[in-house]
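SAMPLE LOG
Freezer: B-3
Tube label: C17
Construct: single chain, 346 aa
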Amino acid sequence: MAKQHQYQFCFGPWNISEGQDPYGPPTRPAQTFDWKLKQLKKSGFDAMMFHDDDAVPDIDGKSDAQVRKEARELKQKLADAGVVAEMVAPRLWFSPKTIDGAYTSNDPKSRQYAIERTLRCIDVANYLGTKLIVLWLAREGTYLREAKDGRRSIEWLVQALDKMLAYDRSIRISIEPKPNEPMDHAYVPTIGHALALAQLTRDPKRVGCLIESAHAILAGLDPADEIDFAMAFGKLWSLHLNDQNGLKFDQDKPFGSNNLRVAFNQVRALERGGYGKRGEYVCFDVHPFRTTKVEHWLAHLVNSRRTFLRLVQKARTFDEKAARQLVADRNHAALDQMVLEHLMGK
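STRUCTURE (predicted):
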């Protein structure tokens, strides 16, 4: 039997949050980046993901030389901690210049700002030693359909992607789709939209996707199907596993917290497609519950990793031959019960 590969794990500094939500203030004191970095390796994680201004705070107000200096200092910190940078993403949804969108803003100056900020993000990624750029197209959409021309907005998105691809011919871009929040309607709500958009660019082979479990659920889709779809194209280059209680706000619950069977099928899809064998990371975009005490601050990350590894074992010990026989017999009731009993430990 071939040796089964081991997964590598990742989280971002924002995943150790302080409990603030739109309806209330923080419930925990802020921790320094150095403290968060220290927790990474000892909790079983191998890499950290970054927004550009996680890597270089206040990035818009700094010179290119300052950005280069601070990013290289961060790379050394990561090396000293025994971890690497998995990806860098431009944080384009905080600026007052992107209130009406970034790449798809009706204001040409705002569109130009978004592209310039993204090219600087690519520089940061190079300084940190990663070639993966993630685009969460947070404000690329509308509150009112009459406020924007959808076709023109897609053309602007393609133009922005082309400028990124031309700026650095070795980067790969992973689009992270989401159907809503913060915009009422997003232009790239699903993996299918992301991969179709890739085909319009100057170099489709370098444009792929990142799947987040909760975002798929918010689109009314099964995350396992989205994983299989992306892997059928060879385009699943990163992954944010979490959980979601239905079509509510983006909850970022611990992986498997709400629906263990949905989580099992995601892991089974990853196993089936060989995810991780080409160096991809399993990232957990999860947040501690607002009620979490300081002493339990890392539990959501540790538990997500632990659940994932338990489900890997469940996927690897699932009787695929027996399942295929039940499928051939169209005995779906027995298959249903087989999955439930396997997850319950019988």
